[in-house]
Amino acid sequence: MEEVSLREHHPHRRRIGGRGYFHRVGPGLITGAADDDPSGIGTYSQVGAAFGFSLLWSTFAALPLAVSVQEATARLGLFSGKGLAALIREQFPKWVLYVALVLVVGANSFNIGADLGSMAAATRLLVPIPQLILVIAFGIGMAVMEIAIPYHRYSKVLRWLCVSLLSYIAVLFIVDVAWSDVWGGVFTPDVSFNKTTIAALIALFGTTISPYLFFWQTSEEVEELKDGGEANGTTGDGGSHLRAMRGDVVAGMSSGVLVMFAIMVTSAATLGDAGITTVATAEQAAMALEPLAGSAAKYLFALGIVGTGLLAVPVLAGSTSYALAETFGWREGLSLKMSQARAFYMVIVVSMCVGMAMNVAGLDPLRALYWSAMLNGLAAPPLIAMIWVLARRKSVLGEYASGRVSSTFVGLAAVLSAALPVLYFVAA
After folding, report:
1. Is 369 left (phi over 0), alpha (psi -120 to 50) or beta?
2. Where are the domains of the chain?
3. Which of 64, 126, 161, 192 is the most buried (most CB within 10 A)?
4. Residue 118 vs residues 34, 110, 305, 316: alpha-carbon distances, Å
5. What is the model's pTM?
């Protein structure tokens, strides 16, 4: 295993508890918040409206699986000093690398297009600006922000954008929820495993355990390692860094799944009870927030969609750029200037352009959110399997290779995500 320095790696993350928490968390919080991107909000709203409380058990099933997969990817970056694509290139045949690349680039591109479209649709609730103009404005604006703002300042912006997710949790304290039915859906669900239900589960797990998060988490751990300063040889207490990283990942993914739970409950209690089982427009999706905001629900909905989109779309584009740069050996990193990593930043620009082009071609904003989650669900299984193999290899991580508990949950995530598409094709 290549030796890396841990002396200064993310020093503000060493202690995860106590005052000042929000300033100490690292890539884990950003990853967890980006997990609740517009695609996630759209998927959770659609499933909550269509299925009521019957699929709420999936939130509790998804949490340990999501945490374990992100912990494994963070472990890979933290203790190898390399991104996920670079490790796949070193440890697997070339064709495996190219398959992984096609999966993540394809899923990310569609996801960016869906997120840009939904951000524009949400904004149109407030201002009567043509959809395509808003799509182009968001795409160009986020590309410029990701390129022009130094990483340390940019990461602080990303952390503050997480606050927009709190509006969905606040609704739980306002809306009239039959909590006995909620807990029934969690612990004693009555589920018919037909194609419609399985498709919903693929979308739920796909948007919660998403391929782009794997590449982003690993690369950001490496980014923090570079920014903290490197020295020759392995220094510092690796165990304390591992514990702090776990706390960061658990906090981030737990917050993401909590928002998932809140959106599903809120949508079931509002949209579902009102007979709206298909969320086809931004106006319908915004109705879930009316118990909290009344006639101002559209403003709150727009804040959530645009806020999480501003957070997630740069992460999507960044993960694509990291994957391609590590594959082809380009200089990469958000801490570098455009002149220092032109190819890396050009991928971000092209990713945004592809997303904008999808909307020019007539992508349906709300339906695309659900289908992008489905696509992520189909792309995730082979990538999770690769992460499981890499995280167990002592040649990659040495003494910090994943243990039995971590490996078991990552393996379960791989098996479940692979089994759902198979069940879909054999189900009635």
Report:
1. alpha
2. 11-426
3. 161
4. 15, 12, 7, 15
5. 0.86
Fold (CATH) for 11-426: Amino acid/polyamine transporter I (1.20.1740)
Q: What is the 3-state secondary structure (H, E, C) of the chain?
A: CCCCCCCCCCHHHCCCCCCCHHHHCCHHHHHHHHHCCHHHHHHHHHHHHHHCCCCCHHHHHHHHHHHHHHHHHHHHHHHHCCCHHHHHHHHCCHHHHHHHHHHHHHHHHHHHHHHHHHHHHHHCCCCCCCHHHHHHHHHHHHHHHHHHCCHHHHHHHHHHHHHHHHHHHHHCCCCCCCHHHHHHHHHCCCCCCCHHHHHHHHHHHHHHCCHHHHHHHHHHHHHHHHHHCCCCCCCCCHHHHHHHHHHHHHHHHHHHHHHHHHHHHHHHHHHHCCCCCCCCCHHHHHHHHHHHHHHHHHHHHHHHHHHHHHHHHHHHHHHHHHHHHHHHCCCCCCCCCHHHCHHHHHHHHHHHHHHHHHHHCCCCHHHHHHHHHHHHHHHHHHHHHHHHHHHHCHHHHHHHCCCHHHHHHHHHHHHHHHHHHHHHHHCC
